[in-house]
Design brief:
The chain has 242 residues and is an all-alpha fold. It is 62% helix and 2% strand. It has two domains: 1-156, no CATH class; 172-242, no CATH class. The protein has a two-stranded parallel ribbon with strand order 1-2. The longest helix is centred in the middle third of the chain and has 18 residues, at 95-112.
Amino acid sequence: MSKTDAISRKDMKEPDKFQQAATQAAGWVSRRRKHVVAVGAIVVGAVVLLAVLAAVTAGREERAGLAAADLLHTMSGEISAVPLPGLPGPFFPDEQAKQKAVADAAQKVLAAHPGTSAANLAALALGDAQTKLHAWDDAKAAYERYLSAAPKGDSLRFGALEGIAIAEEAKGNLDAAAAAYERLAREVPAFSDRADLERARILALAGKPADAKAILAAFGERHKESLLTSDAAERLARLGGK
């Protein structure tokens, strides 16, 4: 698990949002938006711990929080054929084995603690694990479960919405992927610039260059403070727009 405080995202293909979790993460993500530019968030253990601690209240929530801590322990495992000195483990022979273990741990939380904040985070973790396993339909189902249960203002909704878009694109459902990015822009305005950039890319792939150019041409005006403006201009130029 990374100890750095930056999220690095490469190409928006494998999101890992669970570990940016909890209400406290909203401000954390906002302050570091310039680093949130591609797929698969590299996570910060301290931020994840905040999410787990937030779930540990009294009674049912406390038990759910402890279960979420077990899930976190699995997610923090290392890829290694043998135990590594100085590291607590768990250890997995490869990424696929790790993600299967994460999925199993998440499903246990969901089964044992439905309706808790820990279950919401587990649904998001399950979606991420299934995405890494390329189980697109299972990933979508997990993300939708999270979206239906989590508060409308939850700071991690962007991750589930983006995950659905990624799954739809991977399945070749480009219209659905574009619609998911449009939904992301509408429901999580803080990420609307990224959502618009990706929606334009999907529309171009779907053979709708005019629609893509319209989004990119208006990008600078709509997202005046976005760090992605130069990317939008570059993509517009490649499509023959001005």
